[in-house]
Amino acid sequence: MVHQAIWNIKGAISKIKPSWDNHHPWPDLCQRIEKLKPMQSWSQVLWSTPNHGYIKVNTDGSYIRENNKAGIGGIVRNNNGDLIMAFSKDVQCDNNNTAEALAAEFGMKWCKLQGYTNFILELDSMVIENMLINRDTNNLKIKQMIESML
């Protein structure tokens, strides 16, 4: 059983990093694996104000596959950085892209309902951002959301 576990670990490593030599005794292999810990880094992110007369809508969506839970949130600020509105709510979806799209849709629809026409949508999903810019996707659910936003 121990040999099977070691064999499975070596197989997983060779799939992740094919060029890595894992033909070493177990203690050496464990030491090499310890060195594979991810490097932590950080960078400061600054919110940039929109131009005068505009508001900015920052949205985010999240999906956790293990428990099938999803949520969206966002914040709307004016060009002085003053809070206009913030939201957070649970949603039903089956992947992170859909959660991101739902968050963007909620923020945009709220702005339109309140009469805000000069707004900037800022999201952290490049996938959804490209879908909005190109106004197209193969995902039918997200395609419907994009069409309702435009």
Automatic annotation (TrEMBL):
One matching Pfam family, short form?
RVT_1
Question: Which chain positions lie within coiled-coil regions?
Answer: none
**What CDD domains does the record point to?**
RNase_H_like, RT_nLTR_like
Give one GO molecular function term: nucleic acid binding
Q: Which InterPro entries match?
A: DNA/RNA_pol_sf, RNase_H-like_dom_plant, RNaseH-like_sf, RNaseH_domain, RNaseH_sf, RT_dom
- The lineage's top-level taxon is Eukaryota
Q: What protein is this chain from?
A: Uncharacterized protein LOC107815630
- What organism does the UniProt record list as the source? Nicotiana tabacum
> Which gene name belongs to this protein?
LOC107815630
